[in-house]
Design goal:
Elements (H helix, E strand, L loop, with lengths): L1 E5 L11 E5 L9 E10 L2 H7 L11 E2 L5 E3 L5 E4 L2 E2 L15 E2 L11 E5 L3 E3 L6 H4 L2 H15 L7 E4 L5 H12 L3 E6 L2 H9 L4 E4 L8 E6 L6 H6 L1 E9 L13 H6 L3 E4 L5 H14 L5 E6 L3 H9 L6 E5 L1
Helix pairs in contact: 3-4, 3-8
Bound molecules: NADP nicotinamide-adenine-dinucleotide phosphate.
């Protein structure tokens, strides 16, 4: 079948290992099913995989992609929950030590078909296109959990979103605004700051600029480049919720003194549960909000999408269609 996959890992030249070609049809274990993919969205995770982060050499070749929407074996429209937990695991799938994301242990979604556990197939939310639904399982679900489950934020609270242009960041801005929060966003790029205002930020600033007022919480996915600014931007007792380190995990200064003196909370967040995916879909439905798609490309042109993400030239999600 047609597939977009990694056949090499390289930290320096990740796109050198990207192949748009053919792979065997999925093998379907007991309790699993196949989904015929109509749309799949690109995540920074796919670039990390090509760099060998989360994907080991002995797993190659590996079809990339965590997110998919398409048809199940009965022809019903569905979306795939990307967190694969152990069959014996009960409760929050994101805390299962044996969990993985599609494309880490099991073949991913950038293909004609993907095999997934039956419990990972969820009916397509009402009113969603395949392209819109394909944005939900990773970036939008991660943003939902960061804000509401891990961050515990509620209407009226203020939140800073670092690095406005990314898939998770645009989801954070949109969801925070829809939930009645005061939203401040930063970006390195003036045009992206203007777009952030259009999608719901109340206030935007160049990355690293001192904020006029401190915030209740910071949503951090950038890491090294923004960490210090994130810590300095918090009110006493505020929370930094972190789910990624796009610019690198090695901090120049972890700001530990600030953290204890101001009693700040540092909270990790990873993906989201099946239940949170349903809550996310309900929130979007109730507020008339839809995922922001930067561009839609036929899956055959996946390389162009990867190149745009590597260069940081995107605002919202890049979606591949079949
Ligand atoms: N833990 C999880 O479950 C989980 C789930 C999803 C994503 N993630 C992680 O979250 C991160 C974002 O993912 P994504 O798919 O949204 O990626 P993306 O679409 O490629 O977005 C990258 C973002 O990083 C910002 N950025 C990059 N380098 C920067 C720098 N030097 N200084 C300031 N900002 C910088 C960009 O902001 P501007 O261009 O606007 O400045 C952009 O918003 C990735 O590291 C990913 O692995 C984790």
């Amino acid at each position: 079948m047609f597939a977009v996959y990694a056949d090499k890992i390289s930290r320096e030249d990740p796109l050198g290992g990207l192949v748009v070609g053919e792979r065997p049809d999925p093998v379907v274990p007991n309790g699993w099913t196949t989904v015929t993919v109509k749309a799949a969205s690109l995540n920074h995770h796919d670039l990390w995989s090509l760099r060998g982060q989360g994907l080991k050499q002995d797993r190659l070749p590996m079809i990339l992609g965590c997110d998919a929407a398409g048809y199940d074996e009965d022809g019903s429209p569905v979306v795939v929950h990307a967190v694969i937990s152990d069959p014996d695991w009960a409760g929050d799938e994101t805390t299962d030590p044996k969990r993985s994301l599609l494309s880490e242990l099991h073949q991913g979604t950038f293909a004609e078909k993907v095999a997934v556990p039956r419990r990972n197939v969820i009916p397509l939310p009402e009113g969603f296109s395949f392209e819109e639904a394909a944005c939900l399982p990773t970036a939008w679900l991660t943003a939902y959990r960061m804000l509401f489950t891990q961050g515990g934020l509620k209407a009226g609270d203020s939140v800073l979103v670092q690095g406005a242009g990314g898939g998770v960041a645009t989801a954070l801005i949109t969801l925070a605004r829809a939930a009645g929060l005061r939203v401040i966003a930063t970006s390195r790029d003036e045009a992206k700051r203007a777009r952030a205002l259009e999608i719901g930020a109340h206030e935007v600033h160049p990355s690293g600029e001192r904020l006029p007022a401190k915030v209740d919480a910071v949503m951090e996915t950038v890491g090294r480049a923004t960490w210090e600014h994130s810590i300095r931007s918090l009110k006493p007792g505020g929370a930094i919720v972190i789910s990624g380190t796009t610019s690198g995990p090695q901090l120049d200064d972890a700001m530990v003194t600030h953290i204890f003196f101001l009693q700040l909370r540092v909270i990790g967040s990873t993906m989201g549960t099946r239940g949170e995916l349903a809550s996310l879909a309900s929130l979007l439905d109730a507020t008339g909000t839809k995922p922001l798609i930067d561009r839609t490309l036929p899956m055959e042109q996946a390389r162009a999408g990867f190149e745009a993400m590597e260069a940081g030239e995107l605002f919202g999600k890049i979606v591949f269609t079949r």
